[in-house]
Amino acid sequence: MTELTQSQTWNELKAHTKDLPHMRVLFEQDKLRFDTMSTSACGLFLDYSKNRANQETLSLLFKLAEETKLASKIKAMFDGDVINTTEKRAVLHTALRAKPEQKIILDGINIVEEVQQTQAKMATFVTAITSGSWKGYTGKSITDIVSIGIGGSFLGPKIVSQALRPYWNKDLNCHFVGNVDGTSITEKLKPLDAETTLFIMSSKSFSTQETLTNTLSAKDWFISNGASQADIAQHFVAVTTNVAKATEFGIDADNIFPMWDWVGGRYSLWSAIGLPIALMIGMDNFRELLDGAHEMDKHFANTPLSENMPVIMGLFSLLYGNFHNAQSHVVLTYDHYLRGLPAYFQQLDMESNGKSVTLDGTRVDFSTGPVIWGGEGTNGQHAYHQLLHQGTALIPADFIMPLKSHNPLGEHHIQLASNCFGQTQALMQGRSYEEALVELEGCDLSIDEKSTIAKHKEMQGNKPSNTILMDKLTPGTLGSLIALYEHRTFVQGAIWDINSFDQWGVELGKSLGNDVLTRLGAEKDASELDCSSNGLINMFRQQSI
Ligand code: F6P
């Protein structure tokens, strides 16, 4: 048994959550619930009143956070302690958005200075591309950026660029290639012109199979479209910690943007991995994105736990996973530009908190990270929301919406907002059997039929949700929002005492994939593997060509 589940507070929470009335009752009992259970920070407003909680629940949750030393764990991260213990690394993505005058010393070096130098290099590069002074091999300016990377080196730049489309440079377009499936790069390159295309190879390690393979294919495409080996310098840049390997691969040393071991892949969009974003929205807007995240860092580091937005959100997620048996958590964005965020938060949270042992290696006796999924409102309302309302699984939801649209078209935004708020209301209050019967009054049905249909129309409600609003989707509010989720993920990992910063499951997949590769190529026999793997490998060998 872990210390956590034996603690008095944990067990008090267990008992307390069983006795809590339906949220409808909580709202009736406390007319000020919206005022007392909402908070603002860094351009974001959080309404957490539609949660299964009263003041006692909150007190117990904050007590749990205090007892598990959350505040000192937050400090340890910001101070650069080696909190990624299995990889013996500090976790300092917060340094990437620190102010230039800040000092963060790691191994005797002020890493803020290094970050600033890299940002200056990015700024010079962005100006060269966007001003048109950087020319392709035939003297034309760059019109298309192809970013090649996977995992954190793919999703962050892709989703943030997509979200900030209103800020795009009109003369540039960007494309993202992640998957090693040849279809991905083939389709992306089809409409492009080698003379005006710039490739950014993003790989922290510079050893990820998908990225190396896609870059080689990009090089082949480039050369086969009329360029020469010498032209590569004007068309290929790299972002990596492994400068030596990138140079060996053929990338010009001047075109390599450094990053550092203390930045985890899924936390790296704030580094030069964000170069595609900076190219598309300009360096000033990229800095605004960093500033938004920095504001959230300050809020997280300095605000008392009970008013701390990431702490509140992290504790609620923990409450449902550990005390209400919720296995998943849905993120619903009511803004088309934010449609990719659920996938981004999925990687962030599931790669971080999908763990089964505590820091000292003890197997956990509680649920850790939930399945994160989601999509775009209102589309989901006509599909999977059915399960949210009437399914047997409890799925807490986050609704995210800007108050002002970038495209204020007729009645669209007011309708979007009505759907967003209407959903949170419906999830919370549900519809009782009696209410369903009243709705059926006047229908041409027998009493028995009405009773049966009312049972189908009944919704228990009491389904929790957070609503996050912002004035408008800007680089700054987006930066704050993403940092909010980063820290929310941290909060849960810290209370569970797990390592949120390694990813051994993912690494296993990588090494087994490499082993199978040698067997598929017939260099190695597969007969000593399990019969399923052997059978599949043989089938591929015989039939793939
Ligand atoms: O998929 C696992 C992972 O290690 C991620 O954490 C990382 O973002 C991704 O692979 C890509 O790694 P790299 O940037 O080293 O190519």
Automatic annotation (TrEMBL):
Gene3D superfamilies: 1.10.1390.10, Glucose-6-phosphate isomerase like protein, domain 1. The active site is at E351, H382, K510. SUPFAM superfamilies: SIS domain. It holds the Pfam family PGI. Pathway: Carbohydrate degradation; glycolysis; D-glyceraldehyde 3-phosphate and glycerone phosphate from D-glucose: step 2/4; Carbohydrate biosynthesis; gluconeogenesis. It is found in: Cytoplasm. GO terms for cellular component: cytosol. InterPro entries: G6P_Isomerase, G6P_Isomerase_C, Phosphoglucose_isomerase_CS, SIS_dom_sf, SIS_PGI_1, SIS_PGI_2. This is Glucose-6-phosphate isomerase. It comes from Shewanella violacea (strain JCM 10179 / CIP 106290 / LMG 19151 / DSS12). The lineage of its organism: Bacteria, Pseudomonadati, Pseudomonadota, Gammaproteobacteria, Alteromonadales. The gene is pgi.
